[in-house]
Amino acid sequence: MSYRATPSAGFHLPQLAQASYDDRATFSAEVSKDIVPKIITANGIDAATLRTEVTPGGYLLKTNASLQTEGDLDDAAADRLAGSLGYVFRQYRVLTSRLNDTTGKTGFVVVRFPQGSLNATVAQRFFEAADATKKGLGGGYAVFGDEQIFLNATSSEGKPYSGLDDASFQDGLRRAAVSFGSPKPMVSLGNATARFIGNDWQRSTRGEGYQTLLGGSDGELVRKLDEISRCYAFLLAKTADSKGWAKDE
After folding, report:
1. What's the rounded mean pLDDT across residues 189-199?
2. Helix, coil or strand: residue 38
3. What are all long-range contacts of 83-86, with beta carbons under 8 Å and residues at least 24 apart?
4. What confidence category does residue 149 fall into, taking pLDDT thresholds of 50, 70 and 90?
5. CA 97, CA 241: separation in Å to the nearest integer?
6. What pLDDT was estimated at residue 157?
7. Bridge partners for 160 per DSSP
8. Pick from 32, 79, 54, 87: nearest CA to 208
9. Which DSSP state fits 99?
């Protein structure tokens, strides 16, 4: 699961867009330690069986700190957990993927950098290089370790958000890697299962899209998540106050 710890809706944080990567990463690490395990446990999953890390993540040609939660879950459990994370953190969507599913219908590219060389700066440089190579490749990426992963994710109608078929998507990233300078990456291609779990917070301001997946607004899981959401809001408010994210200027 790929998502962010900083909210996309529901909080008045006019200065959040100007927050530094380091400040976002520090907040994400706190959320990973204090909030994510509570959400996992609320889903009836042993939090020790999943691994969550703070990594660079890209969306629409911008890199910010993101969270990746990885573990061995069936699709239903993964979707519920993704919905729970999106609900608490007020995300428009959470990406779930299974990269080792060779029967999947989503093309992907792993851009693998030398050990210890992939950081937010390098990831953003390659993101920009990919988009310059072929329009449509600047949509988004996730990072695991030294691997920058690009998924040609599709809408519910089966149309790639990139506007590219898998062959063009993969060829564009391969060419971007060939022409990229230092650190020099290697590329591998494949197919995966990937989908977005989401809620339109502008239309469904209480998270109804997530609530339906999670058993309804009066269900036990949503009640637990609402309690966790209050802990998250407290942590966010404390951070926003110290970093000036809530200031009107």
Report:
1. 94
2. helix
3. 83/197, 83/210, 83/213, 83/214, 84/39, 84/42, 84/43, 84/210, 84/214, 84/221, 84/225, 85/1, 85/3, 85/36, 85/39, 86/3, 86/197, 86/198, 86/199, 86/207, 86/210
4. very high
5. 35
6. 86
7. 154
8. 87
9. T
Task: Please list the alpha-helical segments (H only) found in the chain.
Answer: 21-34, 36-42, 75-88, 120-133, 166-179, 208-213, 220-243
How long is the chain? 249
Q: Which residues contact 22 (CB under 8 A, 6 or more apart)?
A: none
| This model's pTM is above 0.85 | yes
The C-alpha atoms of residue 234 and residue 245 are separated, in whole angstroms, by: 14
Q: Please name the amino acid found at residue 219.
A: G
b/e burial code for range 10-46 (CB count within 10 A of at least 16 → b):
ebebeebeebeeebbbebbbbbbeebbbbbbebbebe
Question: 181 burial class (0-12, 13-18, 19+ CB within 10 angstroms)?
Answer: exposed
Matching residue, tokens 């608490």: 88
State the Cα–Cα distance between residues 69 and 75, nearest whole angstrom. 14
Q: Residue 230 contacts by C-beta under 8 Å, 6 or more apart in sequence?
A: none
Which residue type, as a one-letter code, is found at position 56? P
Tokens 């200065």 -> residue: 15
